Every structure is written in C-alpha cells, then in structure tokens.
C-alpha cells in the first residue's frame, strides 16, 4: 500500500513554479475575500477577509474544523485559494516562488519537533548564516539562560530525535529560539501553552512576548485567556469569520467569543 502511494506521488505532474522573488519589508498580511476547499466541491473557507497590519498580533479562535489551520496553510502557500487573493505588503503571493514567500515566515508548533544533534544545531538548523553567538543570544532572549547553565555542555548538549530527554518547556524554548534566530517578518504560533504546568506557562508566555516584538504574528488560540492583548481576534465557525474585534469588543458583543470565554472560565480549576 505504501509503495502504491509512493509511485502515485512520483507519477504526479509537478506544478509550474514562479521564479519571481517576493521582497517583504513591512510584513502586512491581507486576505481579500478568500474562498478555499481541499476538494473543489467542498469549501472549508468562505469569503475570508481581514488585514493584519505590520507588527500586529492576530488571534484565530474557533472549534476544531472551523478553518484556523487552513488559513495558515494558505498563508504558507501549501495550497492556493480557489477565489480571492492573499497579499503580503500588497503583493499577491501567488505570483512569487513558494520558497521566497516562506523565507519571511517562522512557525512555532504546539508540539515542536527536535532533531538528533545538539541544542545549537536545533536552533540554527545548520544554516551557516546563523552563528553560535547568535543562537546563544536568541536562546537567552527567550528565557533559556538557566537551561544553558543546567547542561554540562551548554549549547552543545546532545539532543536525541524528538527531544525526548528534554522537558516540554525546554523543547518549546529551543523552538522559540530557532524562530527568533531566523528573524521572520511574519510569525505563526500554534499556541504553546495548552499542555504544560503553570510555572513553565509563565516562562513560555514571556518568551512569546519577546518573539512577537515587531513582527506580524498569528496565534492559533486554544486558551482564550492567553490572547486578551491581541490587536484583533478572528472568530471562525464553519470556515467563515463570524466575529472580529479585540477581546473587550467581543465580550461586549456577547456572541460566539463571549460564550466560548465563559465556558473556558467555568472549566478552569478553582484553588479557593
């Protein structure tokens, strides 16, 4: 079965790739009436329209299957929309090579993947443009100084595949340092605080604040308490933006967001 899929992939005709190089200086992201479906007959995103200004933080919230990850898939050009345009600094990403579009983006996943090597190689990904000094600086900046002093070999501490010998907080800090070292204009955070303890969450939250500074940031939010300071929150349902605004505005609207916020507040443990 696996062999069949491999040969099917090898037989698939490649797409023509543009040789035009995208140049990004500000990092403004605009979705202009975007409609998209993984299958032509089923739209998973319908008429998505918003503008993320340079340096703004935009949070995407909604239940599983609402379209949050699909928006990010389009931004990275893993797919192109069937209708509408995605613009970065006013330029349609469809007209440029995928590599040049992604050059300006960084992503931190909820469960980051670490490779066999060292802490250093996991930050630089063996990119010769990122020096050891820059990697150390990035790790310290996101709050990893105590981690460096904890390990006998410091930044040269060995890492096994998936980083299984490290704590979840340490793995997350390495992935944050990786994103900071590459210095992207646009940052995507698949919220990093949903499965770690409170003390580590505070450390990760501070690291996120460092990382977001001066970058256009998208947060796929699972815990609404962590996105109250976002410039705008897009509430998605069945592939549509059903509400849009900041935390205070959306609570006043008393709609989908306010209901989700109240439900999460109820489910939080009480230590009284």
Molecular structure report:
Helices cover 35% and strands 22% of the residues. The chain is an alpha/beta fold and 272 residues long. The model has no long low-confidence stretch (mean pLDDT 89). Helix 7 packs parallel to helix 8 (198-212) and helix 9 crosses helix 10 (256-267). The radius of gyration is 20 Å and the shape is globular. The chain has a six-stranded mixed β-sheet, sandwiched between helices. A four-stranded antiparallel β-sheet has the order 2-1-4-5, with helices on one face.
Rg, nearest Å: 20 Å
In N-to-C order, the SSE pattern is HEEEHEEHEEHHHEHEHEEEHH
- DSSP helical segment count: 10
Strand coverage percent = 15-25%
Offer a concise description of the structure.
By secondary structure, the chain is an alpha/beta fold.
Which key terms come to mind for this protein?
single chain, 272 residues, alpha/beta, 35% helix
Architecture blueprint of SSEs:
Elements: H1 2-11, E1 29-36, E2 45-52, E3 57-61, H2 68-75, E4 83-88, E5 91-92, H3 98-102, E6 105-108, E7 117-118, H4 119-124, H5 132-141, H6 145-150, E8 158-159, H7 168-182, E9 186-190, H8 198-212, E10 216-220, E11 232-237, E12 240-245, H9 247-253, H10 256-267
Parallel strand pairs: 3-10, 3-11, 6-9, 9-10
Antiparallel strand pairs: 1-2, 1-4, 4-5, 7-8, 11-12
